[in-house]
Specification:
The protein has 352 residues and is of the alpha/beta class. 35% of the residues lie in helices and 20% in strands.
């Protein structure tokens, strides 16, 4: 059976902790230059490295790019647009591990990344190249748009408010697009002495985003091709939606939380919202909120998604799900019509 793991350094270590018998561990893919990637890993012996532009390519249809590799590192000349996927095959026992870049290398994108590679509680793994999460995409370059087109997206689900979608419309075209309107005021009202009350905001997500969750899971169940969903930063509302998907697929909570906190690494706030003009601020209630963020010296530096005690904000939303619905599965059945049969279908479609 092929194993799949994350490519982020710290997260790779956390996932490898439960697989001490594996010969290949700590695998990751980094892109030091636009046309070059480096695959690295740790193994007890030599490894054969295969590459393909298809995330689901079988070994016999992949190109052998390095055989009997003993130094745990291979540099690969990557196409500027296409996205490479690698298979690391232990030369001793044939055990294979598929790995790719977690984040899409966009010049002016933010937090656009793949949910693939995460190991489930029953030993399967989320397929690469099928489910993407992202921040807003109002400033993508022409080359960025070419990279996104190569993903073959079948659906975009926008989790943002009506005001945000006007302020920062997506530049991705030619992909079916879904959104459910609501006002930014539904989130902005949760403030304490002028400071966002993150616990209250997150505890409101299960109810606020139920219509969007219904649209997102319906798209996943249709299985028409890769799906991307986004909010503005790709961390809060998108983080909640990602947690629902990963838990529905059987990914352990430790991994769900680790994926959530990767947003602090991969966000690039300067590309999530255009510079707001006085005219926009006067005409759009949501613009005033984001204008305040843009004035903050910390705006360009993503802040950890934790409260003063170190507790991740996502836990508040998931606690609310458990308190009001009993479990993620019960929430999905009640709010999105995703029952046992649909969960089984999701796992058949998105795990291997």
């Amino acid at each position: 059976m092929i194993r799949f793991f994350t490519v982020a350094g710290a997260l790779a270590l956390s996932l490898a902790a439960g697989t001490s018998q594996a010969r290949v561990v700590g695998e990751r893919v980094e892109r030091p230059a636009p046309d070059r990637v480096i695959v690295s890993w740790t193994a007890a012996g030599p490894v054969d490295v295969y590459a393909s532009e298809r995330p689901d390519a079988p070994r016999e249809r992949m190109k052998l790019v390095s055989d009997d590799d003993k130094d745990g590192r291979h540099e690969f000349a990557a196409d500027l647009i296409s996205r490479p996927y690698f298979l690391l095959v232990d030369a001793a026992d044939g055990e294979a591990t598929r790995v790719a870049e977690r984040v899409l290398p966009l010049a002016q994108g933010s937090n656009f990344r793949d949910l693939g590679g995460y190991r489930t509680e029953d030993g399967r793994s989320v397929r690469w190249g099928r489910i993407y999460r992202s921040g807003a995409t109002p400033t993508l370059t022409d080359e960025d748009l070419r990279r996104v087109r190569e993903l073959g997206l079948s659906q975009m689900v926008d989790l943002r408010s009506s005001e945000e979608r006007v302020l920062a419309p997506s530049k991705i075209e030619g992909v079916p697009y879904s959104s459910v309107g609501y006002s930014m005021a539904a989130i902005a009202q949760n403030r304490n002495a002028g400071v966002p009350d993150m616990e209250a905001i997150y505890r409101g997500f299960p109810q606020l985003l139920a219509p969007q969750v219904r649209v997102l899971f319906a798209s996943l169940l249709r299985n028409e091709g890769p799906v991307v969903y986004n909010c503005s930063a790709g961390q809060d509302r998108t983080g909640f939606a990602s947690a629902l998907i990963l838990r529905a697929l059987g990914v352990p909570m430790q991994t769900v939380l680790a994926d959530y906190h990767l947003s602090t690494t991969y966000r690039r706030p300067q590309y999530e919202m255009p510079k707001l003009t006085p005219e926009l601020i006067a005409s759009n209630p949501g613009a005033a909120i984001y204008a305040q963020y843009q004035k903050d010296p910390k705006y360009l530096t993503p802040q950890p998604l934790k409260d003063s005690s170190g507790r991740g904000y996502l836990t508040f939303a998931l606690e609310e799900v458990d308190r009001r619905w009993g479990s993620v599965a019960a929430y999905l059945q009640a709010e999105a019509g995703v029952g046992p049969a649909e969960l089984a279908r999701l796992r058949a479609l998105y795990l291997e």
